[in-house]
From TrEMBL:
It comes from Enterococcus avium (Streptococcus avium). This is Aryl-sulfate sulfotransferase. It comes from the Bacteria. InterPro entries: Arylsulfate_ST (IPR053143), Arylsulfotran_N (IPR035391), Arylsulfotransferase_bact (IPR010262), ASST_N_sf (IPR038477), Quinoprotein_ADH-like_sf (IPR011047). Keywords: Transferase.
Length: 545
């Protein structure tokens, strides 16, 4: 099944005009037929994966493996070297608890499998590299009787392309650490990996990754990779999991690919900055439309069929002069990166999306059904009069080149307000704050009253760190729900030689401080996330044959 972007662009454009949000009038934007984006649902991987799972099922059912003789399959899907699969049977139905011994209590990874079973296929995540890992398996029957077994799992050496991780500070009593939470490094290229409070890598993928690394409602991952690590283009989108199992694969044509270096050669990407899961289960992705303008289009991809169901072209929403006359940045390949959309977030409160445009120094909310603008955050100077009504009112400094705007859980028990957390690089690209530009970068939390169209700043972190932590590109800020801490990623320090990740409390106390260095070119931390290897949504199932 193959879907193309071009055939849907006209339909969405008509919707925009009929709803009255195309206030800049009609725009001619020719899409080269040879460069239009197409997507296909790929199932070629299924046969090989099914063969693996058939082998594991046969081992499980063989009768050879019991609680006293547990079968261990390291890296069962050839994609997650610090994982394993335990296979065994018990005479009585039992639950299973596992514990991967850490160097201390804070780095010991635990999980419970609460269903009473006699056939057990238990995923083990969070092993140390190049180590004989001790895994404790506790079995409990329905009468409450327990037994404990120990399995030793030897792993291989760590991949060389992972950064040097230096933990400068870690207060595990104040950090947000559950039974299996790690700090994940989402790279611009090369390895995605995760480390514990001691800075030890406890998970990584053999599949290279760029920018798109999101946990889904079912606990799986949305993961952008390549056809092979040697390929030039990130054009394969996977639904996978921490064990490396694949659930869906979508192949994108490479003709509309571009890169952030501005050159027409070298490593490219099709889904350039972000991808999210919608309430329908479909994916909303930031892409290029095949025209000379890049990083200004989104598509909704049907999760089950791979069809493109919707296209949102920001050229239909924003002023024509913004892209036709744009000259704040330039590229060697001649493409015009006038908006540079680097994030998208769905707001379930009003069925809208919040997007960040680095090259317009702007964050804005638009209605998802109609594409009508709801509000704009930023400096209103230079915008046409017809857009002035959308600007939020309040004494809040304009952001500059910002990234990663997300909606927070309710912070003030007020249904009329929305709190947004984002990373402000603080570089004035087009209309950022010139007075403070390039002096510091910071995480910022603002509170917006949609009805009153007002904005206030309620929390910041980073200004006091000054120019040493200024990052002209990339970065992220994440809210940790259990503690209220924030995870802040200063991704491009020292001209891209260092990525610094900090966890800070509501009061601004730093409880984790980590520097990443010695990584391959462009393999810096694009974003930092705090995820649980055994998240609440995920259930592993060994496919029955």
């Amino acid at each position: 099944m193959r879907a193309t972007l071009k055939k849907l662009t006209y339909c969405i454009g008509v919707t925009v005009c009929l709803t009255g949000c195309g206030v800049s009038g009609s725009v001619s934007n020719e899409v080269d037929t040879e460069e239009q984006l197409s997507v296909s649902l790929n199932d070629e991987w299924q046969e090989m994966q099914s063969e693996k799972e058939k082998k594991y099922q046969n081992l499980l059912k063989s009768g050879e493996y019991t609680e006293d003789n547990i079968y261990v399959q390291l890296d069962p899907y050839d994609a997650s070297p610090l994982s394993a699969l335990l296979l065994f049977q018990t005479e009585d139905a039992m639950t299973v608890d596992i514990s991967v011994a850490g160097k201390d209590e804070a780095t010991t990874i635990k999980n419970s499998f609460d269903d009473y079973e006699t056939d057990h296929s238990i995923p083990v995540l969070g092993l140390y590299p190049d180590t004989e890992n001790e895994v404790t398996v506790t079995l409990t029957d329905e009468s409450g009787n327990s037994m404990e077994k120990t399995v030793t799992i030897k792993t291989g050496t760590l991949a060389k392309s992972i950064a040097n991780i230096e933990v400068k500070e870690a207060d595990t009593t104040k950090m947000e650490l559950g039974d299996s939470e790690l700090t994940f490094v989402v790279p611009s290229t090369k390895r995605a990996y995760a480390f514990d409070a001691n800075g030890d890598v406890r998970w990584y993928s053999t599949r290279y990754n760029s920018h798109i690394f999101k946990e889904l409602t079912n606990g799986n991952l949305l993961y952008l990779t390549k056809e092979s690590n040697d390929a030039d283009t990130y054009n394969v989108l996977l639904e996978t999991d921490y064990l490396g199992k694949i659930y869906h694969r979508y192949d994108f044509s490479s003709s509309s690919a571009a890169n952030d270096t501005g050159k027409s050669e070298g490593e490219m990407t099709v889904i350039h900055h972000d991808g999210i899961e919608l309430p329908s289960g479909n994916f909303l992705l930031t892409v290029n439309d095949g025209s000379n303008y890049i990083e200004d289009t989104m598509i909704e991809l049907n999760r089950e069929t791979g069809e493109i169901e919707k296209t949102i072209d920001l050229k239909d929403i924003l002023p024509e002069a913004f892209y036709e006359d744009y000259d704040s940045t330039s590229r060697e390949d001649g493409k015009v990166d006038w908006f540079h959309q680097n994030s998208v977030e769905y707001d379930e409160a009003d069925n809208s999306i919040i997007i960040s445009g680095r090259h317009q120094d702007t964050i804005m909310k638009i209605d998802y059904d109609t594409s009508e603008i709801k509000w704009i955050m930023g400096d209103s100077s230079g915008w046409p009069e017809s857009y002035q009504k959308y600007f939020l009112k309040g004494d809040v400094k304009a952001s500059g080149g910002q990234h990663a705007a997300i909606v927070l859980p309710d912070q003030d028990d007020n249904d009329e307000t929305t709190d947004i957390l984002y990373y402000d690089n603080n570089i004035s690209v087009t209309r950022g704050d010139e007075e403070t530009s390039e002096k510091y970068s910071e995480a910022r939390q603002v509170r917006i009253n949609d009805a009153e169209m007002t904005i206030e700043e309620v929390w910041t972190f980073g200004e006091d760190l000054g120019e040493d932590y200024y990052t002209k590109i990339i970065g992220s800020a994440r809210y940790l729900r259990n503690t209220g801490n924030r995870l802040v990623n200063f991704g491009y320090r020292d001209e891209g030689q260092t990525s610094s990740i900090m966890e800070v409390t509501e009061e601004g106390e730093t409880v984790l401080k980590v520097d990443l260095t010695d990584f391959p070119t462009s393999a810096w931390a694009y974003r930092a996330e705090r995820f649980s290897l055994y998240n609440e949504g995920w259930t592993y199932e060994l496919k029955e044959e």
